[in-house]
């Protein structure tokens, strides 16, 4: 599998154009997405996203191309909404929070928690929810994302204490995660992508073996930290829906075989939830990198 670095392809000029339009009216920025998305449909590397729709969801050629285009449009709208929300225009949007009580219960129990999400929907929706959760929040992300998003995430979550933990090649970020768990804090991360060097396990996903990172899961089990699976999706132009499962503590096993089995159960639970969401919202899973074992390299 090719190495993923976490770097996005947007240019500074492109961002400035969209930001200028957003300040006038979000709908103007949405309108510009159509030609931009068509440009990417023609000229971008579509191998991985094509494989997802064609081979895993069994779409035909025409439906695959239409779905890729709509996926690009959705991604653009999510990015526009992100800027709009961060710039103080969140009153234009409405939100549903299913499972919010589970996060509050984690804080109340003072055990900390691992919030395991995915590259779908809009993280800033989670930021809206986290404003109401009284806990230190540690956000784990690749260093390329960390450099771009540290300040805006701080702005999104306001005066709540947020700590962005950049994923390092030398794996030193693991010590920060351990410290957060020892302090009974929340750690949020995506579980559907890894960078080279991560500890991973292969498991069936949409009918084919795929590789998922397990490092934070191992630590959550070791320190008896409850784990919740969280997802946020865009249901209309102005409405988002957040989902969180009930926190679950997975057994801490001393024997390697039992420990591996416990981690596999945790990963299977996550992948089952991810598959349900991907199947229901197939246009909002933003994966543009080789993911499955038999995907062409």
UniProtKB/TrEMBL annotation:
GO MF annotation list: acyltransferase activity
Location within or outside the cell? Cell inner membrane
Q: Has keyword Acyltransferase?
A: yes
Q: Which residues cross the membrane?
A: none
Alphabetical list of InterPro entries matching this protein = LipA_acyltrans
* Gene Ontology CC, one term: plasma membrane
Q: Which CDD domains match?
A: LPLAT_LABLAT-like
* Keyword Manganese annotated: no
Q: Which GO terms describe its biological process?
A: glycolipid biosynthetic process
The UniProt keyword set, sorted, is: Acyltransferase, Cell inner membrane, Cell membrane, Membrane, Transferase
Cross-referenced PANTHER family? LIPID A BIOSYNTHESIS LAUROYL ACYLTRANSFERASE (PTHR30606), LIPID A BIOSYNTHESIS LAUROYLTRANSFERASE (PTHR30606:SF9)
- The name this protein carries in UniProt is Lipid A biosynthesis acyltransferase
Taxonomic source organism:
Plebeiibacterium sediminum
């Amino acid at each position: 599998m090719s190495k993923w670095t976490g770097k996005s392809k947007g240019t500074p000029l492109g961002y400035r154009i969209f930001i200028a339009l957003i300040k006038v009216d979000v709908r103007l920025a949405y309108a510009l997405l159509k030609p931009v998305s068509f440009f990417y449909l023609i000229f971008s590397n579509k191998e991985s996203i094509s494989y997802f729709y064609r081979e895993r969801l069994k779409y035909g050629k025409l439906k695959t191309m239409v779905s890729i285009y709509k996926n690009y449009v959705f991604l653009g709208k999510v990015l526009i909404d992100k800027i709009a929300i961060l710039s103080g225009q969140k009153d234009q949007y409405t939100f549903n929070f299913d499972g919010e009580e589970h996060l509050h219960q984690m804080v109340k129990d003072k055990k900390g928690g691992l919030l395991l999400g995915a590259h779908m929907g809009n993280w800033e929706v989670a930021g809206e929810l986290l404003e109401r959760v009284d806990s230190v929040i540690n956000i784990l992300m690749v260093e390329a994302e960390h450099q771009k998003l540290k300040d805006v995430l701080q702005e999104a979550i306001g005066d709540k204490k947020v700590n962005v933990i950049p994923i390092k090649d030398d794996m030193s970020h693991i010590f920060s995660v351990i410290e957060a768990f020892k302090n009974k804090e929340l750690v949020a991360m995506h579980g559907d992508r890894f960078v080279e060097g991560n500890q991973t396990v292969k498991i069936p996903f949409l009918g084919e073996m795929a590789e998922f990172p397990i490092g934070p899961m191992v630590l959550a089990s070791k320190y008896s930290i409850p784990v919740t699976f969280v997802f946020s999706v865009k249901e209309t132009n102005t409405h988002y829906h957040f989902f969180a499962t009930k926190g679950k503590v997975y057994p801490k096993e001393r024997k390697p075989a039992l420990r591996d089995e416990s981690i596999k159960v945790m990963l299977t639970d996550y992948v089952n939830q991810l598959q349900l969401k991907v199947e229901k919202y197939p246009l909002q899973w933003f994966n543009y990198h080789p993911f499955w074992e038999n995907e062409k390299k």
